[in-house]
Design a protein that fits this description.
Distance between the termini: 47 Å
Number of domains: 2
Number of helices: 8
Largest sheet: 2 strands, antiparallel
Number of strands: 6
Helix content: 40-55%
Radius of gyration: 23 Å
Structural class: mainly alpha
Shape: elongated
Order of helices and strands: EEHEEEEHHHHHHH
Strand order of the largest sheet: 1-2
Length: 227
């Protein structure tokens, strides 16, 4: 699908994951959106014809995600078949609607992740539970994967939303590693062999002071108990 983006008309963007295609357009003029989306649909049909592929209009949908209220829905069609209008669209496990915007999307992901973290606590705090290495793997595959899977969407969010995602990751790692809440994130990630979900600035002074304190604590440090 390397040349699929050539089908997009001016102002139209898209996100592709496997066989899911999310095409969207934002503009102050509804006529502009209708015209360019329809041109894109025509181009997509030609593209599919060239590559001998097919798209089912019945399984497709179109929705208005703006704050404005539409008095009538513009007739956008995939050649020969009108696309059905819906109040919401699901893409990458996230439901998009007028009320479910960026903050609500992150709130939903955060709620899912916290439920999994609470479940993780039931096995992480037991002496006979899984090894730390296995718990980190569970964190990656069960919690961080929520954000990896939807990265095509979350990568477009603001720095405030990135911070929320990062916090979820560090909360989960503190649970599986048994490290205190005041452990600097960079130390936490290094211990787990991970990188932060979204890049942000870190303080080297915090890291240096933390290691000095752990060396002073010796065997009483939770870091030494990991080995």
């Amino acid at each position: 699908m390397f040349d699929f983006f050539e089908t997009l008309d001016e102002g139209v963007k898209c996100s592709i994951f496997a066989d899911d295609i999310f095409i969207y357009c934002s503009h102050s003029s509804l006529e502009y959106i209708e015209k360019n989306l329809q041109n894109t649909m025509d181009n997509v049909y030609k593209w599919c014809t060239y590559w001998k592929l097919s798209i089912s209009p019945e399984k497709s949908a179109i929705a208005d995600l703006s704050e404005k209220r539409l008095h009538s829905t513009p007739p956008i069609s995939y050649p020969g078949s009108p696309l059905p209008w819906k109040h919401s669209i699901k893409y990458l496990g996230i439901i998009f609607s007028k009320t479910n915007q960026n903050a609500a999307i992150i709130k939903g992901l955060r709620a899912k992740a916290l439920r999994k973290i609470n479940a993780l606590k039931t096995i992480a705090y037991k002496s006979y539970g899984p090894r730390t290495k296995d718990l980190v793997g569970i964190t990656n595959n069960g919690i961080c994967s929520l954000f990896y899977y939807s990265c095509a969407i979350t990568n477009k969010l603001s720095q405030i939303h990135f911070t929320i995602c990062d916090t979820i990751q560090t909360i989960a790692l503190r649970v599986v590693l048994g490290l205190p809440i005041w452990t600097p994130n960079i130390v936490l990630l290094k211990t787990a062999g991970q990188e932060i979900l979204f890049e942000k600035k870190k303080s080297r002074d915090w890291t240096f002071n933390f290691f000095i304190k752990q060396v002073a604590n010796g065997d009483h440090s939770p870091l030494f108990r990991q080995s």
